[in-house]
Design a protein that fits this description.
By secondary structure, this protein is of the alpha/beta class. It is built from 17 helices and 12 strands.
């Protein structure tokens, strides 16, 4: 397999993501040049595409002075190859000859790029000779201007910069244990974190000890927090083993059947947490294919829940639940460290549609919980319009009251508690987790 084929595959991944608005995972599943690779060539192609997407805005800014016309004037195929070549030169320490010659060679195998080979060669040679200082550009320049403005409006310039800096770091793998997190950490040679998550060692998740055992599942530390906060409010603090504890620290009687609903549940990480805690769980999602993944996850872990395919806005349980977790559909802009292509495949109009949907789901959730019960509303985005503003609207309209989170309940995230008593897991220096907003609520009487 030639180096040119790996570069061609990497460029195809960028083409599918940026021109066809596919996620990188979708692009890898659809790309024929990528599927034709195997082993280290496939890993290299993915690494090139991921590195380019992670810092795309800066790369495009640095390419602009090397071009006689705007980057957007080039064909999509040439744009993709320019980015592939530039990121190799500027961020991946690939030898200059290989980065330039193999990328130019890749254009010869792509009909849409073949006529631009000479132009590509000239620009990449100049990129090798006049290497820019990407770090001198603002860290928020990795995003489109409209997205930087949106983040700064919600988080302030410093908060937006923190979010961007987190995106530049390669994300790690984190696990949630079904029962004993300390034992899982020991078995996989991982690190038990203060919040109860386990940081896995480097390498593919499939290579971890006891992979497929059902003793753990992959879950970002911030994504694991909502279920823990929900259970902590209902019945004291969750035990280290994941069992729900009463306020004296004793295990709750499982026969008491604390009931919980997980709305928009698939693929099911939070459902698994609630089930592992001994709750009687109903998982609701409108997507049957995604619910299939939830069923597979339940089977793998040996856990059980009632699974319902329904629209959460109109579905209602036979009896009100004690607890409800609503991980509402959102822009997912808090997950850019793992899915950096999201910054470029989303548009402002895509994001604008979410707040009304989120509010309707939260309003529906208030009709599914008993008086005195608890709702945990969360979204994997730090934008105020999808988080705080939705909650404040529900409070203003008398639908819910806030149940503030305490530092003791948010181990590992105490500094993420807001003045309102909500949680915004904005990454700090050295932290590696997604940006979630979560608010704990009770339906108004």
């Amino acid at each position: 397999m030639s180096g040119a084929e790996a570069r061609r595959a990497a460029a195809d991944l960028l083409f599918l993501s940026l021109e066809k608005r596919r996620t990188l995972d979708q692009a890898m599943a659809e790309s024929t040049p990528f599927s034709d690779l195997d082993g280290s060539d496939r890993a290299f192609a993915r690494a090139i595409a991921s590195a380019a997407l992670r810092e795309l805005g800066r790369i495009d800014r640095a390419l602009a002075p090397l071009l006689s016309r705007p980057l957007q004037a080039a064909s999509p195929a040439i744009r993709a190859l320019l980015r592939v070549g530039a990121v190799q030169l500027w961020r991946m320490d690939v030898p200059e000859h290989a980065a330039v010659s193999e990328t130019v060679e890749a254009a010869k195998d792509w009909p849409d790029a073949r006529s631009g080979g000479a132009f590509l060669n000239a620009v990449l040679r100049r990129a090798a000779a006049e290497r820019p200082d990407l770090d001198a550009l603002p860290v928020t320049a990795i995003w489109p201007d409209w997205l930087t403005a949106a983040f700064e409006d919600s988080l302030g310039p410093e908060g937006a910069a923190r979010l961007a800096a987190a995106q530049l770091a390669e994300p790690g793998i984190y696990l949630t244990a079904k029962t004993n997190a300390a034992a899982v950490a020991e078995v996989i040679s991982g690190e038990l974190l203060p919040n109860g998550s386990v940081r896995a060692p480097g390498g593919p998740v499939e290579a971890l000890a006891e992979y497929g055992s059902g003793d753990w599942w992959v879950q970002d530390p911030a994504a694991a927090l909502p279920a823990r906060l929900l259970m902590a409010c209902a019945s004291g603090n969750p035990s280290k083993s994941g069992m729900v504890m009463d306020k004296s620290g004793e295990d709750m009687n499982r026969s008491s059947e604390v009931t919980a609903i997980d709305l928009c549940a698939a693929p099911g990480g939070k459902t698994l947490q609630l089930c592992a805690a001994g709750l009687k769980v109903t998982a609701v999602d409108r997507s049957k294919p995604r619910l299939k993944r939830l069923e597979e996850n339940l089977a793998r872990t040996g856990l059980s829940a009632e699974i319902i395919a329904a629209d959460a806005e109109t579905w209602r349980p036979a009896a009100p639940a004690d607890l409800l977790l609503l991980d509402a559909p959102c822009s997912a802009l808090g997950t850019l460290r793992r899915h950096p292509e999201g910054a470029f495949i989303k548009r402002p109009e895509d994001i604008a549609r979410f707040p009304d949907v989120q509010y309707r789901l939260l309003k529906a959730a208030t009709e599914m919980v008993r008086p005195g019960g608890t709702i945990l509303y969360c979204v994997c985005t730090p934008l105020k319009a999808e988080g705080l503003d939705v909650v404040e609207r529900a409070i203003a309209e008398g639908l819910v009251t806030r149940l503030p989170v305490t530092p003791e309940e948010a181990a590992g995230f105490a500094d993420c508690i807001t003045d309102h008593g909500d949680v915004l897991t904005l990454p700090a220096s050295g932290a590696s987790h997604d940006a979630f907003f979560m608010s704990r609520l009770s339906p108004s009487a």
